[in-house]
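User: Fold this, then the next.

Assistant: Folding the first:
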Amino acid sequence: MGVWMLLGRVNVWLLLALVPIQLFSYYATGNIIFSYLRAKGNLQETSHWVTTRMALELNFVNHILPSGGAAGFSYLGWVLHKHGVGAGRATMAQIVRFSMTFISFLAIMAIAVVSLILDHQIDRIVILVSASLASVPTLGALLLIYIIGNRGRLTRFSNWLARTANRAIFTFSRGKSKRIVKRELVENFFDDLHQDYLEIKSEKNILTKPFMWSVLQNIADVILLMIAFMALGAWVNPAILFIAFGASAIASITSVMPAGAGVYEAIMIGFLASAGVPADVAIAGTLLARVTLVLGTILFGYLFYQLTILKYGKRPTDS
C-alpha cells in the first residue's frame, strides 16, 4: 500500500487524541525544570499557568528557530531572568532537564530492549542504536560533571572559554571588537553552576520530582507516535518506537534546521524500516506525526511567545 493511500485513510478522530497528549508532554517538560527551580526557592509566586505558558513557548522556540536547540536554551534563560532566576541557576535547571530526561530514557530503553528480546524482535541494528544512545550522551554528561565538579577546572575552563570567544569575535569582526566576553562574568556564571552542582550532590532528593516528570514526558512522547501510527490503521511495537524516537531526537540535536527537520525524519524512517516496519508505514506514520505535532506546537506556542516578546522586548539580546 502506498504512502499517499495510507495518509488518505487517516482516522481524524483518533488523530485528535494527539492534542491533549501533546499538551501534557509540554507540561511535563516544563515541570522537569520548574519543579527543580521551586525546590531551590525560585518561582514561588509564579502560577502553574505561567510556567505552562513558558513550557509552550520553549517548545515553540525549539521547533521553529534554526539553532539545534540552542535558541530554546537561551530563550528560557532570558524569560527566567525576568522572574528573578539567575543565569547560572537557569542553566543548571536546563541541565537538570536534559540529564533527567536522558536518565529516565535509559531506564525505559532498557525495559524496551528486554521486551524486544523476550518477543524475539531484537537484531543487530537495534542493539547498535541502543548502545550508541546510551554511550554518546553519557560521555558528554561525564565531561560536564568533570568540569563543573571542581572549582579549579571550572576556573580554567571559563578563562579558556572567554579567551576563545573573544578571539573568535575579534576575527569575525575584523578587529573592530576586542573584548566583548568578560572573563569575570563567565567565571561568576560557572561559579553559580558549581554551587548548584554541590547542593545537588548533598540533596539528591531534589531531583526526585524532575525525574518523575521526565519519565512521564518520555512516555507521552512515545504515545504521540503510537497514536499517529494507529490513526493510519498500523500497529508498531512501542519498544521499537521508543528507540526510534530516541535515536531521532538525539541525532536532530546536531541539525541547525528548525526541529531537526530532515535529520529527524530520515533517522526515524530508516530505523523503523530496518526494524521490520514496512517502508510505506514508516514514512506515512513519521510524516503524519511530525506535521501534526509541529502544527500543534506553532498553534499553542506562537501566541504566548509573541505576548512575551511584546511584554519584555523585541529580542532576548536586548534585555
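Now the next one, as you asked:
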Amino acid sequence: MDALTRSQQDYLKALYVLGPEGERVAPSRLAQRLAVSAPSVTHMLQRLSAEGWVRHAPRGAAQLTARGRRVAVDMVRRHRILETFLVRVLGLDWSEVHADAEVLEHHISDRVLDAIDRLVGHPEEDPHGHVIPDRTGKVRSRTLRSLAALPPGASATVREIRETESERMIRWREAGLVPGAAVRMIEVRGAEDLYEVEVAGSRIVMGRQGLEGVLVEAGRPSRTRAVGRARPRRTRRSRSTA
C-alpha cells in the first residue's frame, strides 16, 4: 500500500466510487460523500494534485490519475472483501458492515487480506452486490439501471445497493430489495410519485426517493444466493419516501 494517510486514501476511494469510469467529480459531491467541509476538500485536492494522485484545477472538478486509480481500486477491493467477511464469517448484519469495513480496510496487511479472500471463497461481489475488483485491479462491468426507471410490467433482478445509510438498507432488506431478488414493476403513479413493485410475491409501494439506490438488471435472477439475502417482509404493502 502506498504511503498515504487514511484521509488521503478515503478521498481517492471516494473519487473512484463517484466516478468509476474516470469521470470528473465536483468538490461538492466529495464534501457530501465524506461529510467534510468545502474548504477541507479544496485543501486535500490541492495536496493530492501536487503529489500526482489526482488532476484538479482550482475551484474545478477532480479526476484520478492512473496512479491514484490503482490505489483507489485497491481500497475498494479491501473494503468489499472485508464487508463480505464480516457478513459471511462473523455473521454481522448486511446493513451495518460498511462503517466497520471503513475502519478495518486501513489497518490490515496484504497478507491478511489475501487470507480473508481465500476464507470467503474469492467472492466476485460484496453483500450489497458491488463488484469486487480482482487482484490485478480489473473490475467486471455491468449494465444496471435504477429500479424506479423500470416501466410498468417490466421484470428485473436487483443487482446492487448503492447506499451507506443503515436505516435505508434495513428498509430495503425488510422489503426484500436485496441483491438477487426478482422484482416486477406493477404500476407507476407519476402524479403521486409512487411506485408499486412486486418482490418475491409481495407488493410494496414506495416513492422515487425510497427506491433510489436500488439498481437492477433486466432478466431472471441467478441461482446463486446473494450474500446478505433476506426474506421479504410478508406485509401486503408498505409506504416509504426515504
